[in-house]
Amino acid sequence: MAGLSGLLDIGRDALAAQAFAVNVTGQNITNVNTPGYVRREVTLETRTAGPQPWGSVEATGIRRMRDQFMDARLFEASGFAAAAGARDDALGVIEGVFNDFGGTGLGTSLSDMLQSFSALTANPSDPTTRAAVLAKAQAFVTQVHTAAGTISTLRTDLLSRAQGTAAEVNQLVSKIAILDQQIAAQVATGAQPADLQDQQGKLVEQLSQLTDVHTFTDGSGRLVIQGSGTTLLEGGQASSMAVSTALDGSLVISVNHPGGGSDDITQRLQGGQLAGIRQARDVDAVQIADNLDQLVFDVATAINTQHAAGYGLDAQNGRVLFALSGPPGTAATIEIAQAMQGHPERLAASDTAANLPGGTGNALKLASLASAPIASGGTRTAIQAYSDIVGDVGMRKAAAAQESEIREAMKAQVTTMRDSVSGVSIDEEMVSLSKYQRAYEAASKLIRTADELIAGLIQELGR
Amino acid sequence: MRIADSTRLGTVMRDIASVQRQLFAASRQASTGSRLAGPSSDPVAAAQLVRIQGAIGETESYSAVLRTVRGDLEMSEATLDDAGSVLGQIQDLALQGANGALTASDRATLSAQVKQLKAEMLRLANQKGSIGYLFAGTSDQDAPFDAAGTFLGSPQDRVAKIGPGQSMVVSASGALAFTALGGNDVFAEIDALTAALDSNNQAAVSASVKSMDACQRQIVAARADAGTKLARMDTADVAFEQAKVALSSQGHAVGDADPAESYSRLTALQAGLQTSISVAKTLLDTLSIQQI
């Protein structure tokens, strides 16, 4: 049976254990708002005293309250949310190009140009009317250049952004690798590197917003990061990501491994900003630009063909109105033909030289192009084909916005679930604080009682 | 489920942000009156709106064509009316000249009057409108008749586009009104009359009376034709105005926000935000153990 001095030992152990628990609680409270912080719980165990049936208490360590499965889901959810957000942002820029409800955009200039040929039929010999037709054609060309330029600039920006993101990925993976080495070293000494693990967890979460991330620990407890079918970190060795462009200008995202060899993950990316950037840049923007190029090519070709059939006021025929190339690239390169620039009198309104200057035979045919199926393989009018592009852009942007919203909601839900395991609740910590405080006070009382008993015994024995 | 402080605060912040986003969209809608902030607001409606705006532009362009050509055609009609009167006067002089009691000197006097009237007739036939010479056909930048009354213009009429798939002749044909292409060469007939008067040839003058009558009918027919075209333009213009109204109202139906609905939505969201904020305040103030 433990003697009175044993009681003092028990009290001492209790004071130490409860004080440690108060410390842990204090750390939790302090870090309530710290991103990446995983709450700790103190592990209290009975300290056995050999074969004796009694013992005291011992704080054997702390437990980081984290659920690997939940973390994995969070990485995935935040990756998808970041991808959807990046695509949504990029499409917002393109949507602006086709948002001309105010009547000053590309659609209006296309319509104005086509209708200007009707005005030409009313007064084909009037220099002002002719100049207006040429001005409308020039306005259309300018608007088309603006639209193509905006999409092209966006693609250039997105390339820079992808390269910046890859640099950020490399920086994060390097930091995670260093932390992984430090954690391994501490674990080897039997320490619990919870703070380092928190930092590492936070960095991995940041990484998951940039690219696909799946994590697990290998047999020796080292962190492995994989994503898009390749390995970014294994055994403390970080791979590096690089972004370049293919011959057709599309992104090539590759991962180079430290031991040599590389993987092209471009087509396999699903999550993270990089995936959203790639989707917006090399799928959405390319398809929209292609559609615009085709529309501009179809309209300009139809006008050119008809225009060449007519006669200018100088009795010459065979001239085209637009200088064309492509597609692709038609929208960016279309110009008013050199021979027509500054020469409204060369507009071919008449269908014969004999009917000059008031003949409108060709202007009538040019005006009819407004309602003729000249676009989309001869199935749509120019305005219908343009409205198809507007609808397509709107649908892409709406789908991206909706997906972004859904992904963010899913991320919020997973975050809530993860925080229900790892997050700090001040209420809970206050209860814990009181609990450990009371235990500490009780342990003090225990020591005081033991002390009084010993003092009383000494007094009695000394009498 | 454990509710961590970050969850409580995060949820409150997300909820308020969500209401604020909706409120922003509703304020934009209420202040602009437009349901569509961009094509993504309603892609189908956006595409439809583009087509409607295109159709409105097309209709407006046809109206503009009608406005441009109408003035000259009205002027042509009035000018043909004047030409008819002048020809009537010539016809009267021819009738007088056919009178057997007239002397050669009387006929010479009549001839001088007819020559003046021919000059007036030429002035009318060479009348210029806002676009060009009214009766020159497609050669509208040059006078269609020379001093002798020879037609130098084009028999080809000017044609304008006045509707989808529709074009119409928008000039009165000088060739049909004044030249042999219409059946009678008016100026040649007048010349024949003056020649008959000058040569004191009563029989020839009598013959001219008939031909003047034919010329008169020819000019009246040309004038009637111009009138018919003007009527057609009127009909087309009314149709375009109606189409424009219909298209505009379609455009409003597709693109506009219902003011009452947007206002009530705005009010509801404002109230919602206030509630959200006060609920958030309550939640954040909710009894915490620290306060006990």
How does this structure look, described?
- With 463 residues, chain A is an alpha+beta fold.
- Chain A has three domains: 4-65 and 426-461; 71-79 and 159-282, no CATH class; 103-155 and 287-411.
- Chain A is built from ten helices and eleven strands.
- A four-stranded antiparallel sheet of chain A has the order 3-4-5-6. In chain A, strands 7-8-9 form a three-stranded antiparallel sheet. In chain A, strands 1-2 form a two-stranded antiparallel sheet.
- In chain A, a hairpin with a 5-residue loop joins strand 3 and strand 4 (223-227).
- Chain A is rod-shaped.
- Chain B has two domains: 51-251, f41 fragment of flagellin, N-terminal domain; 259-287.
- Chain B is 70% helix and 3% strand.
- The mean pLDDT of chain B is 91.
- The chains are: A alpha+beta (463), B mainly alpha (292).
- Chains A and B meet through helix 2, helix 3, helix 8, helix 9 and helix 10 of A and helix 1, helix 2 and strand 1 of B.
Please give the structural blueprint:
The complex is a heterodimer of chains A (463) and B (292).
Chain A (H helix, E strand, L loop, with lengths): L3 H27 L9 E9 L6 E10 L3 H30 L8 H17 L4 H62 L5 H15 L5 E4 L5 E5 L2 E5 L2 E2 L1 E6 L5 E6 L5 E3 L7 H38 L12 E2 L6 H4 L1 E2 L24 H8 L13 H41 L3 H36 L2
Helix pairs in contact in A: 1-10, 2-4, 2-5, 2-6, 2-9, 3-4, 3-8, 4-5, 4-6, 6-8, 6-9
Chain B lengths: L4 H28 L10 H55 L6 H22 L33 E5 L2 E4 L4 H5 L7 H13 L3 H54 L3 H27 L7
Helix pairs in contact in B: 1-7, 2-3, 2-6, 3-5, 5-6
